[in-house]
Amino acid sequence: MFELTEEQRMVIETTERLAAEQFSSNAFEWGTEIPWENLERLAEQGLLGLNLPEEYGGGGMSEIDVIFQLEKVCRICPDTAFALYTLSMVAPRAIEMFGSEEAKEKYLPRVTSAEGLIAICISEPEAGSDVKGMSTHVEEDADGELYLNGEKIWVTDAHTADAGVVWTKFPDGTLGTVIIEFDDPGVEISENYTNMADGIQSHFFMNDVHIPEENVLVRGPEAFKQQLNALNWERCGNAMMANATSLCAFDKALEYAQQREQFGQPISEFQGIQWKLADMAKQIQAGRTLTYQAVRDADRRGEPPDRLSSSLAALYCSEHGERIVSEALQIFGANGYQQGHPLEYLYRLARGRRIGAGTDETQKNGIAREILRRGGLE
Ligand SMILES: Cc1cc2nc3c(=O)[nH]c(=O)nc-3n(C[C@H](O)[C@H](O)[C@H](O)COP(=O)(O)OP(=O)(O)OC[C@H]3O[C@@H](n4cnc5c(N)ncnc54)[C@H](O)[C@@H]3O)c2cc1C
Questions:
Q1: Which of 85, 202, 355 to mutate to test the pocket of ligand 1 (most atoms within 8 A of CB)?
Q2: Domain membership flag for residue 340
Q3: Which of 44, 232, 300, 374 is deepest in the core (most CB within 10 A)?
Q4: What gap in Å lies between CA 164 and CA 362, rounded to an integer?
Q5: Which of 91, 112, 133 is the last residue of a domain?
Q6: Domain that holds residue 329
Q7: Buried (b) or exposed (e) across 143-175, using 16+ Cβ within 10 A?
């Protein structure tokens, strides 16, 4: 779809080969486990944190390279792709963008060497879509030392992460972000939940957690805007994860449709099945175009994607993703409806993409706000 440099082609081909040779045999068996061994293999080949700077063990490449990489890996092993996505485009990305030199040196090499995870901690029991309604807050004592109090919920992989990027209010009422460590005595995980797609999400409390100055990522009047902009990377990553989950389901359905015979012929010979495949292909290609374009434009500008293009990509891919995976499951008939079958897992995964990293409804709110602000589409 795009012209690639020699380096980009090499990275994509190496990732694709590695995924096909080493991640496929147990791709749907990870359950609640994080596929650490796959992450280690990626790290050994210098393929973890492609978009993070080389001085911290990253690849020094651009975001579009991660997007291509996620697509290749997710097509084969969605769980490995999800870990790759969180390592490349979510909390570590915020540390790279806003962190002090000390924070970058401390946290990023652990991520790029597959030694640790960093969670993103935004949601609270009473503040989901309404992020500004959060109660987590930083207090400053007479010596200027910062202490964090509050609670977070639905935080993916907090049970095993080393650190978390926490969204919080500062004493002046503005929203900013800080880094915490999960082994801090003030951090107390109260419950780990297993979501519909076997991911573990935690509820935890922060009680007077000391925040050294070097662990403050952003604060001040512009901080909220800066963070929301940075979140557009996550939206694009989520778009790609949703679209590549669809692609994984499509690949499997296409293969099955050509093998499964009914009425004396492969079911792929029936127009009813062909139209399903055609619709799926149309939607996957449209999702790719929206996502690639949002990320490539941002790479060219050297800043995060804009809200309109990232929310359009996220909304399109998540909404259609659920439908595409459902249609793929339909092609499998009863086979696809069995627990443990890749299609039923992909369906559960696709459902979550319509909620995590911003619900479909909040994406629509963001799109509408941007259209009205701009007076229409370009
Ligand atoms: C798989 C998964 C992984 C997640 N991982 C993390 C994580 O790592 N870290 C983290 O902090 N959070 C995480 N979350 C939480 C996620 O960010 C929230 O679920 C999301 O922001 C929505 O908040 P909520 O669930 O409280 O829903 P609510 O905000 O309570 O919304 C409930 C319903 O009302 C709708 N709604 C709300 N406001 C409006 C409005 N203004 N207009 C129209 N409709 C509206 C919503 O779209 C939704 O349908 C994850 C969630 C999922 C599903």
A1: 355
A2: yes
A3: 232
A4: 24
A5: 112
A6: 223-374
A7: eeebbbbbbbbbbbbbbebbbbbbbbbbeeeeb
What are the two backbone dihedrals, phi and then psi, of residue 45, each rounded to the nearest 5 degrees?
A: -95, 10
State the distance from the centre of ligand 1 to the C-alpha of 58, rounded, in angstroms.
Answer: 31
Which ligand 1 atom is nearest residue 362's CA? 47
Burial of 194 (0-12, 13-18, 19+ CB in 10 A): exposed
Count: domains in the chain: 3
- Final residue of a domain: which of 218, 243, 258? 218
Amino acid identity of residue 86, one-letter, is T
Pair (227, 91) in one structural domain? no
- Domain-embedded: residue 1: no
Are the C-beta atoms of 296 and 309 separated by less than 8 Å? no
> Are 229 and 345 members of one domain?
yes
Over residues 83-111, the pLDDT tens digits come to 999 999 999 999 999 999 999 999 999 99
Residue 299 alpha carbon to ligand 1 centre in Å = 28
Q: Of 99, 217, 85, which Cα lies nearest the Cα of 156?
A: 85
Give the tens place of pLDDT for each residue, 186-226. Answer: 999 999 999 999 999 999 999 999 999 999 999 999 999 99
Strands 118-121 and 163-169: parallel
* CA 354 / ligand 1 centre spacing (Å): 9
**Closest ligand 1 atom to 121 CA:** 11
How many A from CA of 127 to the centre of ligand 1? 9
User: For ligand 1, is residue 198 a contact (CB within 6 Å)?
Assistant: no
**Residue 363 is part of a domain; what is its CATH number?**
1.20.140.10
Atom of ligand 1 nearest to the CA of 86: 8
- One domain for residues 276 and 340: yes
Regarding whether 170 and 191 lie in a shared domain, the answer is yes
- pLDDT tens figures, 358-373: 999 999 999 999 999 9
Atom of ligand 1 nearest to the CA of 158: 8
Q: Taking a C-beta distance cutoff of 8 angstroms, is the pair 84, 67 a contact?
A: no
- Residues 105, 241, single domain; the answer is no
Residue 237 and residue 201 share a domain: no
